Amino acid sequence: MTQTYEVFAQCAGDPSRDAGAMIIRVSELEEHGLRIDDVAAFSAALSDPAWRLESIALEVEPDGAEVFVRGRLATTVPLTCGRCVETFPGRIDVDVDVRLVPRPTGSDSVELGAADLDVDFYDDDQVDLARVVENSATLALPMKPLCRPDCRGLCAACGANRNVVACTCAQHPPDPRLAALSDLAARHTN
User: Fold this and answer.
1) 117 vs 132: CA distance, rounded Å
2) Where are the domains of the chain?
3) Contact indicator for 50, 78 with CB cutoff of 8 Å
4) Which residues of the chain fall short of a pLDDT of 70?
5) Interatomic CA distance for residues 140 and 100, integer angstroms
6) pTM of this prediction?
7) Which of 24, 76, 118, 188 is 20 to 30 A distant from 171 in Cα terms?
């Protein structure tokens, strides 16, 4: 893996294509592959301008018609806390391990199994690494982001952010119909 971004830039596709696209031609990849670690080269790779690519280290390796993209990337993205609904910058560190295969021709339908979840397709002998980077970062987003682990969330009565304001709303007793569930929870914690 001695090639760097300079060779990657030479392998790039038509400049009239999308400015954020980082195209490499599969047929022009050398056997020992390609190493990419230039963050500036991927500055336009993420379609959301609020997302910042902090670091990237990718290895692109051909294996016949298949292409393997492996490495690591880190991005900072604005996230909304799932408890208090405040926006905060979240850091996403993700390992990239994607296998790209040529898109099936015509109306061929391909059934993917559990072992194929890391498979993506490419068209016309061209792999868009910007799409691989953005997909990897997007799939690594947390399902329920938290601004901090001890976030107290919003008051159910007045909607105040309990991290910022001490809420003076009266606490309502739990629904008596759910008493059996609280007993069950108490038994499991002991």
Assistant:
1) 14
2) 5-139, 152-190
3) yes
4) 1-21, 106-108, 110, 185, 189-190
5) 19
6) 0.74
7) 188
